Every structure is written in C-alpha cells, then in structure tokens.
Amino acid sequence: MKKIAIINQRYGIQVNGGSEAYTRLLAEHLQKHFDVTVLTTTALDYDTWENYYPVGADSVHGVRVLRFPVRHKRNITWFRIITKCTNMLKKIGIHIDRQWVCAQGPVVPQLVQYVEEHEADYDVFLFVTYLYYATVFALPKVADKSILIPTAHDEPYIHMPIYKKIFTQAAGILYLTKEEKEFVRKKFQNTHLPHDVIGIGIDLPDEQHNPNTVEKAVEKFRSTYQIYGDYIIYAGRVDTGKNCEEMFDFFHRYKQDHPNSTIRLVIVGKAFMEIPPDADIHYLGFVSEADKFAAVAGARWLWLPSKFESLSMALLEGMALGTPGLVNGACKVLKGHCTRSGGALDYEGYEQFQKRMNEMEKMGEEGQEAYVAMCERARAYVKEYYRWDVVEEKVCRLIEIIGDSRYWG
What we know:
Number of helices: 16
CATH architecture of the largest domain: 3-Layer(aba) Sandwich
CATH class of the largest domain: Alpha Beta
CATH topology of the largest domain: Rossmann fold
Number of strands: 14
Distance between the termini: 19 Å
Shape: globular
Oligomer: single chain
Strand content: 15-25%
Strand order of the largest sheet: 3-4-2-1-5-6-7-8
Radius of gyration: 22 Å
Number of domains: 2
C-alpha cells in the first residue's frame, strides 16, 4: 500500500473553509486505498493563524494527522501594508512576493523541514491549495513526488511570479472544475503535466435523503431560530473576500426598491466583517451541520455572491438538497455550474440581480412548476457528476502514476 502525505494549511472538524473541508473529505475517502498522513498546522482561525491544536500527532475521523506550530500570528495591519506595497512595486518591475507570502502566513518552517527530511518515507505528496506558505516552500523540495490540487481562480495573487514554479514543477495536477483547468493551463502553459479534473463527491447525511425527515428538520430549524416565510440563504465565511459587502448592499437596495417584498436573508457561518443592522437579515453565526443542512433545505435559494471560487462545495451541497442557486456570474466556475445544471440563476451587477430576484419571487407566487423543475435539475446535476467513486478513481490513478518509481526515476 502506497504511503501518501496530504498538505493543507488547516485541518479539523472545527475548521471552517472550503479548501480545508475538501482536504478532510478527500483524506477520509483515500484511506481505503492508501496509508494517509495529513501534514498541517496547529491553527484553527485563518484570520490570525493563532496556534490552537496541540503540536504533534493527532487523529481526525481515523486519519493520522501531524500538526506543526505556526511561528507567529498574522499581523493584519502589516499584511495590508505589504499587500499595497506589493501591488505598487510590481508596476515598476519590483517583486516582493516572498515577503508577501510570509506576511500572509501561516509560516510553518518545521512542516517544510519535515517534508524535506522525510521525502523517502512517502510515495506521493498531495498539496491542496496553491496560495499558502507550506505549498510554496515545501512542494519544490519534493517536486518529483508532488501532486498539486491548486483550488485556483483568477485572483490578483496568482499572478505573482513566486507561484509559477509550483504550477510548473509539480509532477501532476488535479483540477476541481473544467474552468479552473482552462485558466491554469492558459496562465502557466503547463499542458505537459499529467492531470485530470476530479471535482468532489457530495454525500448528504442519511436523514437528508428522507423527505419526511427533511421536512421535520426544516420545521424545527424555523421554530428554533424564529425564521418564517420565504428566505434566501448565504452559508459560509462572511467576509469581504467572499464579496459579502456587495451582497448586503444589493439586498438592502432591493428591499428599498421593492418595499412589498417579504423575502428575507439568512446568514449561516462565522463573520469576519460587520453584519449590517437590518430587520430582514438574520445572522445565525456558526451552526451545527444538522442546522446548516436544515437551513439550506428550507431556503428558496442559496446565494453565492463570490467572484472567486474554484469549486463551491456550498453550492453543490445546496443543489443536492434541491435548493437552486443564485450565483455571481462574474465567477466563471459558478456560472459554469449554472449553465451545465439548469439548477441555478446567475447575475452580474445590481440591475441583473434585481431582475433575478423578481423572477425568483414570481416563481414563488405563480411559477411553482418552473421552480420545482429547477430544484429537480439541481439535484440531478449533483447526483450525476459529483460522486466520490469517480473522484477516488481519478485521484488514485494519478497517485499510482506519480508514485511509480519508474515515472520519476
């Protein structure tokens, strides 16, 4: 049985984040095929990277985890300053990418040292997410045994020269969507590397497959949180990086422009920005998985305002529950889900958002058949294309190629 290491910046049941959740699910599904060890930090919070978990060996859902300490917390003020400096200096050909990556964190030199010293102990190293310190500095040390799962999208940071080497030196690359693959290959001209598009498997809890159980869970959720009437939901990290500022602005403007609208906005997830005071915005904070699924199942629509996504587990989970999406069409990945599935609507700018909201509210009043059909298309899309057996087969195939000593010498 091949021994593989999976590297990500955070790992744990309590960790809130798409890349981190993806890494945990992937590690758990690969256990049946390989001897899996996750290499990660002791951080729980991505905002500060403050050490939270004990250093050393751990076990999460039966997966072996090795945690390494973060050298220092992120200084947000300094990080903002160096980000501005980076943007200004690149205009005159000066790059301080290394300093920016270190300021961003989490700085984990002991993890990088472990990878270098234990290269011979593992057949393959999987690095999930291109952006952070561990991938930037550890992947080149085991390049011939490395597979990159970049979770990339067209954001300003990916154009920094420091990232080119990890996209071109990795022995193989696994993409989450066709749009991500097209963007990365055009940007880095790395078409020669072994690769595949793997997506993710969406497994709902057993109780979510029983309509009666779901209905009771939704009723309990509404009663517990005093949520009545139709609502749209945002489920995820609440911060400016997810375009939540625009989301709140658009919702507020829509309610002002349509005073007879009874639609409400429910927010589920940890907030890293101020939630504007509004009687029609219900911020519930970080809730249990059961409450999250019930909240999404009970919503008329799931809102994805982000312009930068490499997959969006939140959208796929919502669609699996039969809740259609309202997505920002400026994100090619989200628009791709929308186009391929027929189970979501996209918008760009306030005027189009307003038009979509009007369509959505009319569906609730007089177009129930059209709404039900959209819900069914959303379910069918996830069921057909996002299965763990397909993901596992593709990942295992590339691991076997890279892990074969005849491939890398």
